[in-house]
Structure formats: C-alpha cells, structure tokens
Design goal:
single chain, 39% helix, elongated
C-alpha cells in the first residue's frame, strides 16, 4: 500500500442509495416525551432523534400494538358532544 493517496483528481459521485436510508417526516410529540428522549440521549451519547427512531423501529419489528381504550365521559348523544369528548382538555 502507498503511504499517501491523491484523491484530488478523483471524480466524486453522490451515493445513489442515500434517499432510501431515511425519510424525513414532521411529527408532533408531547414535550415530556421529547425531554425524556433528550435526557436519554445525554446518558447514551446518541442523538435523541436516533433514539426515537430506534424505539419505533423496535415496535415495528415486534409488531407491537397499542392497547388503549377511549372512554366517553357521561352520556352525550350529539355529534359535537362526542367530538369534544375525544379532544384533549386544552383544545375545547
């Protein structure tokens, strides 16, 4: 092997597969959730976005399903009452 290689004359080419590596999305998360992953990022030394991605990937691989039930409060029968019952308290 040579001690020194001259890459200045080499033609550069972008990686054609880079667009398949990750997809940019916009997602709205609770502040507590983001703070949790940011604190975890400090402990692990990994960026918090990578930690969120790793967690979601693990859920997808294991095919985890959220077990959550929505409960309507009281006996509301109108459409607007049903809609407001499913909204968070700050949005009413």
């Amino acid at each position: 092997m040579r001690a020194h290689y001259d890459f200045s004359k080499m033609k550069s080419r972008r990686n054609p597969y880079v667009k398949f590596l990750k997809q940019s999305v916009t997602i709205r998360l609770d502040r507590d959730t983001v703070e949790y992953f940011k604190a975890l990022a400090v402990k692990t030394g990994l960026p918090y976005q990578n930690l969120i991605n790793l967690y979601l990937r693990d859920c997808a691989i294991r095919q985890k399903e959220l077990s959550m039930k929505w409960v309507l409060m009281g006996r509301r029968t109108t459409r607007s009452a049903r809609r407001s019952a499913t909204r968070p308290a700050g949005e009413r």
